[in-house]
Design goal:
By secondary structure, this protein is α+β, with helices and mostly antiparallel strands.
Length: 91
C-alpha cells in the first residue's frame, strides 16, 4: 500500500523515493527525506549545505518546510557524477 501524496500549492509532494520513476516530471516536489535518499547524503548534511548556501541541490522553503524540485536533485546528482572524473573502459 502506498502512502497518499500530500498536496501543496505547487502540486503533490513526494514523500517516498519509491514513487519516483523515470517518467516522474522534473517539476515534481520532493521532501528532504526523499532528497537525502536520492543523493546519498544525510538530512543533516543537506541542512549544512543550505546553511552555507553551497554544495547541495537547490532548495526552497514553502511555508516552514524545505522542499526540492526533482529536476534540481537530478541535476545535482548528474553534476556530481560528471565531476567525479569517472572513466569507463570498453573491451
Amino acid at each position: 500500500m502506498t502512502t497518499p501524496l500530500r498536496t501543496i500549492g505547487l502540486g503533490p509532494v513526494i514523500d517516498d523515493a519509491s514513487e519516483i520513476t523515470e517518467s516522474t516530471p522534473d517539476s515534481a516536489i520532493v521532501s528532504v527525506d526523499v532528497c537525502a535518499q536520492l543523493t546519498g547524503y544525510t538530512v543533516s548534511s543537506l541542512r549544512k549545505f543550505r546553511e552555507v548556501r553551497r554544495g547541495g541541490p537547490t532548495s526552497f522553503v514553502l511555508g516552514r518546510v524545505v522542499r526540492y524540485k526533482l529536476g534540481d536533485v537530478r541535476d545535482f546528482v548528474q553534476r556530481a557524477y560528471d565531476e567525479s572524473n569517472v572513466v569507463t573502459t570498453t573491451k
